[in-house]
Structures are given as C-alpha cells and as structure tokens.
C-alpha cells in the first residue's frame, strides 16, 4: 500500500488513501451514465437505429448500478456507518449528495425498466410457469392489461422517465467529477473542466460497453448483427470521443500555457511518474488509435465483418482508455505531494483489501448480474415481436 | 514515595473521567499554564481567540514535540499529528527538505549535500486550525467541525473514514487512524487547553519554538508577539483557508 | 382509442414509493442524534455538540513539571534552577499517566536504547551542532560538535555526557569543580606568600 517515494513528501502522504477502489467507482458510474444515455437517445430523441440496443442498455445500466456502491463500501474505514451519509448529509460537502443522487437515479432507472417491461411480462405470462410466473406477476404490479390505451400510457411514462433520467445520469456522473474538481488542495484535480471530462468519458465508456456487450451476445448466440444500429453506435462513440479527447487535452494545455506554479509541479508529474499511463497509454495508444479507427469506420461507412471486429477492438481500447483516465486522475492527483517537492508511487497488490483481485471481482460482478437479469428481462425482444414469438 | 499517596493519585486519575462541560476533571491539581482560561466561572468559547505560533529561528529539530505528541495520543507508527521538517538551502538556491520518521528520533545525523549550504533550519508542522477549513467543508457527514473557540475537531463516532478530508487538507496533516479507522489529526490538545494546560508539544519544547496562547489575554506571549514588528506568516495563504497557526521568521521556501 | 388506460400498477408504485419515503424519514428521526445540526455556520459548524464533550473526556497523559514536584522534590529543585529548566521531565522519563497508572510497576524510564547510549541519544538530540540547527545564539542553547567536545575537554571519547554533567542540572558539578580548583589556586597563592 504505502509505496515508494521520490523527493520529499509529507509524512502522512506515504499512504495513498484513494486506492484502486476509488478508481473503479467513477468507472462504474461512468458506464451507468453512458449506457443510460444510449437508451435515452432512442426513448427520448427517437434515434430509430438504436432501437435494438435500447432495452439492453437500460438493463446493462441497472446491472452496473447494483455494483456501484461496492467499491465505496470496501474502501470506507467504517463501512457500517455508511448510512450516515444519508442520515446527516453535510450541506456543503460535494460527497454528501451521493446517497440521494444514487438512490434517486436507481429509482428512476428501475421504474423506467418496469414500465418498459410491464407489457412484455403481461404477454409472456401465459407461457411461463412456476417461480418465473410469480416474479412476472409481481413485476407487473398485478396489472396485466394489454389494451392499447394502457400500453400507450406505459410508453408515455417510459418516455418521461427517460427524460428525467438524462439530467440525473449527467448529475450522477458529472457530480463525481465535481467531487474531484472541487478539491483545491490538489492541483491536478481542481479545475471546473473536471465534471465535463468525467461526463464525456462516461459516455465513451458507456457506449463502448454497449457495443461490446451487444456484439458479444450476438456472436455467442449466433444471431445476425444489426449493422445499422452498430454503425450509428460507432458514430456516436466517435463523436463523444472527439469531444472527450479535446477536453482532456485542453485541461493539460491550459495548465501548460498558464505556467503558474502548479504547472511546474504538474509538469514533473506528467513527464515523470505519470508519463506512461497518461501520455503513452491514455493519450497515444488508447485514444488516438480508436479515434482514427472509429473515424474511418464512420466516414467510410464500413459494413460487414470489418465493422464488427474493428468496433469491438476500438471499444475494448476505449474501455481501457477510460480506466487509464480514472487512474491518472484519482491516483495521479494523490501521487503529487502537497509539499510540491516529491511523489508517492502506488502499486496495488493482488490480494490486499483494496487491491487488484477485489477490483476484478467488482468489475466482473455486473456482468454476472446482467446474465441473471437477462433470464428475467428479455433483452432483445420488442413488445411487438412477442406475438410472433408465441406462434 | 509512599503507597497511599500513589493510590490516591491513581484514584483521582481513574475516577475523574466524565463529560461535565464546565468543571473538567484533572488527574491532579497543578498550577495552570493558561491561567486566563478559568477567568470566569463558566467557560465562554466566544471569549477566547487561541493562536499557535512557531518560531522557526528557535527550533533546533530535537523532536521532543513529536515524541510528546505520539505519547499523548498513542498515535500509531507511521502516522503523524505533528512533525518537524529540515530545510537546507544551498548557495544556488536549491532547497533540500527531509523529515525522517517525522523527526520522532530527532535529527541525529547531518544531511550530506555536496554543495555549500546558505541556510539551514527546522520547520515544525501541525494542524493549521484554519478559520475556513477546507477539510470541514468537504466532510459528507458533519463529522469534523469548527468549535466556537476556533478548534477544528473530529467526531470519531460519526466519521465514516472516506478520507475526503485527507485529500482536501492543503497541509497534509490529516490521516486515517490505523486502529480507529476514522480520520484523525492534531487538535492543538483541545482536552488539555480546556483544562488550562498547554498543548503537549508546547509543554515539551525546550527552546520555546512552539508558543500557544490566548490573544484576548493582553499579557500572553502570543499577544505580545502579534503586537510587535516580528515577521509573521502562514502556510499556503493562497488557499484561502486563513490558518490560525502562524510562523515567526517564516521563509518563502517553506511550503 | 377512447378507452381509458388501466393505471393500477402506476398507482401501486406511487403508493409504494410514498410509503418508502415516509418510512425512511421516520427511521431517520430515530437515528439522528438530537444535538446534531447547524451550530452557527452550515459551512463549518454543522456537527454533533456531544463530540466536543467526547474530545474533552480524553484525559491528559502528560502533565507539567510542577506535577512531578510533589514526589520528586530533590530532582525538581535541581532542574528548576538549572540551564535545563525548560525541559519537560516527561520527555526523558515518559508520560505522567504511564507512571502513575502503573501503580509502581514502571518507575520512570529512559527510552531505548538504555544506559550510556540513551544518554548520548537524548543529549545529542539538542546539543548536536553538526545538524546546523538555528539558533546560533548560545543564549538559547549551547551546541557542541561530538566527539570534538570530549577531545577539547581532555577526556576519553568513550565517556558519556553524564560523567561530567549532572543531567538535571548540567553545570552543577562543573561549577562546583571550578570553584574547588579556584579555591585551591587561592590557597596555593596564600601559602606562597
């Protein structure tokens, strides 16, 4: 935990307090926010091409939403007191809002899913038995009415919830950026650009996750991939990535051009201990290569296997890019001593409490949860198709 | 020393704990080091303005303060409520800073630098007790706060150990206590001050480099120094935290 | 589509949510301490009043030099009139609370390493000129180079500080010796005359 030191750091700084857990937490909220925005593009902005993934994106967000608090609870010194944050929220603390914003967002997300799926469940009920039938009955809240008026009502509610959900998803994640951006003691964090950068990279990681999930499931099940849908996902991903990279570099550029005292420390950080993970990994390999690949895919309107493979590779690279970005922000800020005269290095161990293994578990858990949820919520079935499915 | 007397002292020490607000229990009666505090029958926090002064010219880097502090609070190894830094400034202006073990063992060896040294001095560090503490502002559960007499304290029973305050403190004085698993930091020995005793580090300092007192007490040493023309400074003034901890003869190299 | 939609599920959900919020609010009132809130400033004084009492319940573990006087009068008198009067007894001998609470088991101790090494470690913490400590003004503290000081005083380098200096009153024996030799000189001069 307490790592190597270069130069002089204050004696209490030998320990990096915000560990891999706090790198993972904004990563997960980012994926949630990004996935939600994909589904809202269909539900609110009526981007018809995204229809095939609109439901998957919501359940995907829900699965990650369940795991969002895990890294936090594992990190807290006193996890048994976690509800204090909702019992006695300090009005001036950026962090105090987390409990409320997170639970409100989860409620909106759950409600949207319930209203979206009520009709589906009602239609599926006659052909299901046992525990699953009971569950469906519960999830329809006892209303299995399939009249067009009721379905229209469900649709309307879903649209409204999706509309409310957009600002909430933005707040949930942009606010995580604010938690960092509002720490004046850490020069690498305190910038008003932080919430924007967090939000944009959230969209990037969310869309990447959706592309990867969509392709993976369709490859495994041997179903045909909807290329129109994939192509528009790629275009959105490219667009968000452009703005994301511009803002990430703008932040560094402003620091570098202002050349205030903080830059002299930041310069040493960015061209010293953070050189590989920031410039080489985050910027050159995992941003620029996908930027070019996605650009070609979008502009040349590539289709077929090339589109599938290249978009899958870009998505994996971008998921790594966003994780690098979270690492560089969270750990990078703490590596810089507040004395301005040294750095602390952080090398998480595999088995420690906040180490690599717990991180892997926390990142794999949502995928398992998603698999379980897919048994309950038909991810790829539209309400309309149910009839043909029944035969 | 006879046994009866020893027993009596032990009895006083053990039986005295309690949370009486005005009459604070003391292990034994000793002449008070801060006489002003019991001026009135009731303690009025608004009537005091405590200031901590560190005279860099007088610090000899012995580390007595750090030892006293560690023992007063039984601070875990590797964590520091207070520490002393050694500054060496070379002829060319290069600054060399170190603080091995937070100066718990003092500075037994000179630091070897192959350049001529222009100046060398020691800088004790502790909680700055800011007027506008950023650590308090960010605490999500209200577990750290500023008292009416200006002390920034921690509510160990409500702290969740999120370490946001650790990140927010510009001076690096906060840490997550290894055993308690909550935030912890220097309190300027609030429990001693309210009993009329000096903070443990001030009491232990052999050269008077650490000074503590009430500005409202005209005769206190700190009040006299603040009225004089001695050069005073605070750390990182651009953070806008307005520290109550002031440094006498502070050099600009000190961060 | 003049048909009215069936909204029972929506109504049930809304009722459920309201019940949940009311329940949470009720539980909250039981769990939040009564003395927690804004005590003057939302920014800096939002806290539980009892936390101050908790902090005050902490007992001082160090007291003052005066607290040692009642039992250790002889040492106290020595120290209070010497150059070492500004030193805290507890720095070398350990905190008052450890001493009194142990009911005689620990009778004041010297920190490790013990014996001659401890004396050297303790004395050199302050009197080591090699570490460039300010102040250079000997009024505040006299510093020496070690072991040059021993050579200068024509004693063996293995000598520990307390062989010449009484730790509680460092110059007491030195002064006594000086006076003694000055007296001898006088006597000699007297005898010569």
Structural class of chain B: alpha+beta
Tally of distinct domains of chain A: 1
**Would you identify the regions of chain A where 5 or more consecutive residues have pLDDT less than 50?**
386-391
Can you tell me the overall shape of chain B? globular
Taking all Cα atoms into account, the compactness measure Rg of chain A is 22 Å
The level of helicity of chain A is over 70%
For the record, the CATH architecture of chain A stands as: Up-down Bundle
State Rg of chain B. 19 Å
User: Which range does the strand content of chain B fall in?
Assistant: 15-25%
Structural class of chain A: mainly alpha
- Report helical residue fraction of chain B: 10-25%
The gross shape of chain A turns out to be globular
Count of beta strands of chain B: 11
Mean pLDDT of chain B: 88
Order of strands, widest sheet of chain B = 9-1-11-10
Main CATH class of chain A: Mainly Alpha
- The rounded distance between the terminal residues' Cα atoms of chain B is 49 Å
Biggest sheet overview of chain A: 2 strands, antiparallel
In short:
The complex is a heterotrimer of chains A (391), B (255) and C (193). Chain A has 391 residues and is mainly α.
How are the secondary structure elements laid out?
The complex is a heterotrimer of chains A (391), B (255) and C (193).
Chain A: E1 5-7, H1 20-43, H2 51-67, H3 70-75, H4 84-87, H5 98-124, H6 130-139, H7 148-181, H8 193-221, H9 227-258, H10 261-270, H11 275-299, H12 304-335, E2 342-344, H13 356-376, H14 385-390
Antiparallel strand pairs in A: 1-2
Chain B: H1 3-15, E1 50-55, H2 64-73, E2 83-90, E3 95-98, E4 117-125, H3 134-138, E5 144-146, E6 152-154, H4 164-168, E7 175-176, E8 183-184, H5 190-193, H6 200-204, E9 210-214, H7 221-227, E10 232-233, E11 245-248
Parallel strand pairs in B: 1-11
Antiparallel strand pairs in B: 1-9, 2-3, 2-4, 5-6, 7-8, 10-11
Chain C: H1 8-31, E1 36-38, E2 46-48, H2 50-56, H3 66-69, H4 73-80, H5 89-93, H6 96-101, H7 115-127, H8 148-152, H9 172-192
Antiparallel strand pairs in C: 1-2
Protein name (chain C): Cytochrome c family protein, multiheme
InterPro entries (chain C): Multihaem_cyt_sf
Organism (chain C): Thermosulfurimonas dismutans
Describe the protein.
The complex is a heterotrimer of chains A (391), B (255) and C (193). Chain A is mainly α. Chain A has one domain (5-385): Up-down Bundle (Formate dehydrogenase/DMSO reductase fold). Chain A has 14 helices and two strands; from the N terminus they run E-H-H-H-H-H-H-H-H-H-H-H-H-E-H-H. A two-stranded antiparallel sheet of chain A has the order 1-2. With 255 residues, chain B is of the alpha+beta class. Chain B has a domain at 27-37 and 44-76 and 127-255: Alpha-Beta Plaits. Chain B has seven helices and eleven strands. In chain B, a hairpin with a 4-residue loop joins strand 2 and strand 3. The longest helix of chain B has 13 residues, at 3-15. Chain B is globular and about 60 Å long. The relative contact order of chain B is 0.20. Residues 1-22 of chain B have low confidence and may be disordered. Chain C is built from nine helices and two strands; from the N terminus they run αββαααααααα. Chain C has helices at residues 8-31, 50-56, 66-69, 73-80, 89-93, 96-101, 115-127, 148-152, 172-192, and strands at residues 36-38, 46-48. In chain C, strands 1-2 form a two-stranded antiparallel sheet. The mean pLDDT of chain C is 86. Classes of the chains: A mainly alpha (391), B alpha+beta (255), C mainly alpha (193). Chains B and C meet through helix 1, helix 2, strand 4, strand 5 and helix 5 of B and strand 2, helix 2, helix 6 and helix 7 of C. Chain B: This is Tetrathionate reductase subunit B. Chain B: It comes from Thermosulfurimonas dismutans. Chain B: GO terms for molecular function: 4 iron, 4 sulfur cluster binding; metal ion binding. Chain B: It holds the Pfam family Fer4_11. Chain B: Residues 118-149, 150-179 form the 4Fe-4S ferredoxin-type domain.
